[in-house]
């Protein structure tokens, strides 16, 4: 081999090996990345962010329990659809999980902490609740009376401190909010958009939603569901979403719980892939319809058997009811 040929051979080999090495290290990067994603997914799946253990609850002065021996466990990053008939106990359960109602410390854990006793869970924004109580408190003067006063949506949204400006911008765009909207002259859907924006400004780790999208138009609802999905997949947020609207929910949810008369009856809060009735194709609506029909028949039968509910009269000891009659 001539000197020139030897030189050419050596240079080509060096270039080839270098390229091979670069290629291999690229591949290794990808494999490393994939491994870390896998580890994250496994970690996400094994990290429990919300836990309810044999929870029972009765409202004060009420004779019967509204939540009965309820057990649920949700991993980080999951999106659980909470379903059930009117009066089944969904809002009551969400209010307990949100720490608005006191139950024993060991019955409910959110991010490993008891939500009622650990006040900081909600104050820090780690646990966020958008529900009936919240609807009455945010942007309203109490009950269903809208806040009076001619101030713009901007004032409410920019009034929340310590918010990431990028997140705020994103939410304003997503919810199609006009910052000049006057809070006293909004439609129900517009008010709900401002309320939802306020509730989502802080990056929660666990979000509890109780029928928040009823007033939104289809686009608003679908965009919001997409946003929630990204929050779970990118940040590992966990969401429980109670609704009677199932459009788009089959693909959206990762877990399903159907509550009947305060008990976890179908779905068991399990992964949707493991629930026989909705496995594979989108059978969610028809399945929930079937469950609701069975539930309605059972409730009727139970009520017939139980007879009328006996309520505790809180004024019985004071005779004030009689006094009020005299007053009339
Ligand atoms: N403050 C309260 N005091 C006493 N009983 C209550 C109170 N709030 C709700 N209930 C009762 O608890 C039961 C469950 O109500 P809850 O609001 O949790 O049901 P839900 O599943 O959210 O219903 P919906 O789908 O209509 O919103 C109902 O029978 C209701 O009458």
CATH top level assignment of the domain at 55-133 and 204-306: Alpha Beta
What is the global morphology? globular
With strands numbered from the N-terminus, the spatial order across the biggest sheet is 5-6-7-3-8-9
Bound molecules: adenosine-5'-triphosphate
The percentage of residues in β strands lies in 15-25%
How is the biggest beta sheet arranged? 6 strands, mixed
Q: Helical region count?
A: 11
The unreliable regions are 8-45, 322-328
Average per-residue pLDDT, rounded, comes to 80
CATH topology of the domain at 55-133 and 204-306: Rossmann fold
Helix percentage range: 40-55%
SSE pattern: HEEEHEHEHHHHEHEHEEHH
End-to-end gap: 120 Å
Task: State Rg.
Answer: 27 Å
Provide the CATH architecture of the domain at 55-133 and 204-306: 3-Layer(aba) Sandwich
Structural class: alpha/beta
GO molecular function: ATP binding; ATP hydrolysis activity
Protein name: ABC transporter domain-containing protein
Organism: Bathycoccus prasinos
Pfam families: ABC_tran (PF00005)
What does this molecule look like?
This is ABC transporter domain-containing protein. Keywords: ATP-binding, Nucleotide-binding. Residues 50-288 form the ABC transporter domain. This protein has 328 residues and is of the alpha/beta class. The chain has a domain at 55-133 and 204-306: P-loop containing nucleotide triphosphate hydrolases (Rossmann fold, 3-Layer(aba) Sandwich). It is 44% helix and 17% strand. The protein is built from 11 helices and 9 strands. A 6-stranded mixed sheet has the order 5-6-7-3-8-9, sandwiched between helices. A 3-stranded antiparallel sheet has the order 2-1-4. The N and C termini lie far apart (120 Å). Residues 8-45 and 322-328 have low confidence and may be disordered. Bound molecules: adenosine-5'-triphosphate. Adenosine-5'-triphosphate binds next to helix 2.
């Amino acid at each position: 081999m001539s000197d020139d040929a030897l030189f050419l051979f050596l240079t080509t080999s060096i270039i080839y090996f270098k390229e091979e090495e670069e290629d291999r290290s690229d591949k290794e990067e990808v494999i490393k990345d994939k491994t870390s994603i896998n580890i994250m997914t496994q970690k996400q799946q094994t990290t429990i962010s919300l836990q309810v253990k044999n929870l029972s609850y009765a409202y004060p002065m009420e004779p019967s329990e509204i939540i009965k021996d309820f057990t649920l466990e949700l991993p980080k990053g999951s999106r659980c659809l909470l379903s059930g008939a009117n009066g089944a106990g969904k809002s009551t359960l969400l209010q307990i999980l949100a720490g608005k109602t006191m139950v024993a410390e060991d019955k409910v854990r959110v991010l490993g902490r008891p939500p009622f006793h650990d006040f900081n869970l909600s104050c820090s924004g780690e646990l966020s609740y958008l529900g009936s109580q919240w609807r009455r408190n945010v942007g309203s003067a109490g009950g269903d009376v809208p806040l009076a006063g001619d101030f713009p949506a901007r004032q409410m949204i920019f009034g929340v401190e310590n918010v990431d400006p990028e997140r705020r911008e994103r939410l304003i765009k997503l919810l199609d909010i006009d910052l000049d909207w006057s809070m006293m002259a909004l439609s129900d859907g517009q008010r709900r958009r401002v309320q939802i924006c306020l509730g989502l400004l802080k990056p929660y780790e666990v979000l509890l939603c109780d029928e928040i999208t009823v007033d939104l138009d289809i686009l608003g609802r679908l965009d919001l569901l997409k946003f929630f999905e990204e929050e779970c997949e990118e940040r590992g947020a966990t969401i429980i979403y109670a609704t009677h609207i199932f459009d788009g929910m089959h693909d959206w949810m990762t877990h399903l719980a159907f509550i009947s008369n305060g008990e976890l009856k179908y779905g068991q809060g399990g992964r949707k892939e493991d629930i026989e009735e909705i496995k594979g194709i989108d059978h969610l609506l028809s399945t929930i319809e079937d469950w609701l029909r069975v539930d309605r028949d059972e409730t009727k039968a139970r009520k017939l058997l139980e007879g009328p509910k006996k309520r505790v009269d809180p004024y019985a000891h004071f005779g004030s009811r009689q006094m009020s009659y005299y007053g009339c």
